[in-house]
Every structure is written in structure tokens, then in C-alpha cells.
Amino acid sequence: MVIPTASEEPHEAAQDYVRAFHRIGGPTVEVLNIKTRTEANNEEFVRVLDTAGGVLFTGGDQLRLTALLGGTLMQRCLHERYSNEEFIIAGTSAGATAMSTPMIYQGRNDAGFLKGEIHITTGLELMHDVAVDTHFVARGRIVRMAQILATNPACVGMGLEEDTAVLVTEGRELEVLGSGLVIILDARSCSSTNIHEIAPNTPFTMRGIDLHLLASGEQYTLPIQLRLYA
To answer: Could you tell me the pLDDT band of residue 229, with boundaries at 50, 70 and 90?
Structure first.
């Protein structure tokens, strides 16, 4: 099932994936375009989701996903199926960014070294204590991820380059797929930061971040505690 809610042109975005799955001989693809929170709480829509073998969130604006799905029956159904069944949830660009707990929703590619340039909110919480960002190398987003971790040092930052993905199993086991790199930033060993002391629009300092560059086929275990929804 394709959910194009993040896109400003949902029909066109969804049909791109319908055609792509058809070309590779994939399963039958249905489209579920959630446009309002009322629809996300509609039991008929939830029943459609409950029969799907998997879900793909398209790119677009991740804030649309969290604003329309957060706290709804649709989000709870996603959590329950992901936690208790063999159910695949995939996302590209904004769809991937929305998977995390702290979620970037605003910030220029060249921003991040000044306090307050990056705006975050709570994502769909399918990956706990992980912040996800995409187009990571091509758009130079490592510093903006570092600012997220300076304010949330218990989290792990995961940057996905273009044409690159991670397969996550058991909520924490990663396998890198594709032609680029996955960059892991782990701030749990951070020795110091001044972000809580400096004024807005001031460069911040952070020391002691662990950095991992992972190519296709590499595996990594996220150092997080699993949380399952009842």
C-alpha cells in the first residue's frame, strides 16, 4: 500500500510507485491518500490498512505526515502491526525522515551550526531514540544532525544518502542497501556541549561524537532500548 500523504501532488507521487512495482513484477499496490485527521481516524480507512501486507510513505513534507497521522487510529494501527506482525513499513525522503522520534521538519541544507536554526518535533515514532535525515551527503546535512544530537544526546543520528536505504529488523538491527553511504552519529559518549548555555543564533560546540560510515552490506546494531506498543 502506498500512502502519498506527504506529497503536494499525491496522485502523481502514488502512481510513480504503482508503475515501479508493476515493472518489477511486485505485488498489487493500492493507494491510501489520507488528507485529513478525520480520515486518519476513520475505521473504514484503518480496516483497509489492516489488510495491507506493507506500507510505503512517499516523499514530500514530513510535517504533513505527523500533523495528519499523529495520535490517530491510523498511527496506532501502524505501531501495532509493526510491533507484533511481519509487517514492512517503508519510506523515501520525507517518508523516511518521519519514521524517527525526534524529527527534523525545518532547516536549510547549509544551516545547523547556529543554535535554533534547526526545528524538530516528534515523528511517527516507529524508530525510537533515532533521528533520521535523508540526502545526507549530497546536501551536507551532517551539522544539522549534530545540533539535534546536542539537544537529544540519548538519540542516535542516522543519515541516508541518495539511492541508499537501511533494512531494519527487530527494531534495532540495520543492514545497508544501495550505492551510497549510511552515516551513524552516536552522541551518547559526548563529553561536553554548550548548546544549553549559548544565545540563539550562536555557533554551538559539541565534543566526543562517534561517527560510523557504512556502505552496502554493512550491518549495525542500534544502541537503543526497544519499546513495543500494547
So the answer is: very low
Please enumerate in sequence order all residues whose Cβ is within 8 A of that of 25, keeping only pairs 6 or more positions apart, or say none.
Answer: none
Provide the b/e sequence for 42-71 (b: ≥16 CB within 10 Å).
beebbeebeebeebbbbbbbbbbbbebbbe
pLDDT in tens, 179-207: 999 999 999 889 999 999 999 999 999 99
Q: What is the DSSP letter of 203?
A: B
Closest CA to 120 of 146, 89, 140, 139: 146
Joined together, the cell numbers standing for residue 74 give: 491510523
- For residue 230, pLDDT over 60 is answered with no
Residue 103 burial by CB count (10 A; 0-12/13-18/19+): exposed, middle or buried? buried
Quote the CA–CA distance of 178 and 161 in Å, as a whole number: 9
Alpha-helical regions (H) of the chain: 10-23, 37-40, 43-50, 62-69, 73-84, 94-97, 142-151
Contact 1, 31 (CB under 8 A): yes
d(CA 17, CA 223): 33
Closest CA to 214 of 187, 175, 186: 175
Instruction: Provide the whole-model pTM.
Output: 0.88
pLDDT of residue 15: 94
82 with 89: CB under 8 angstroms? yes
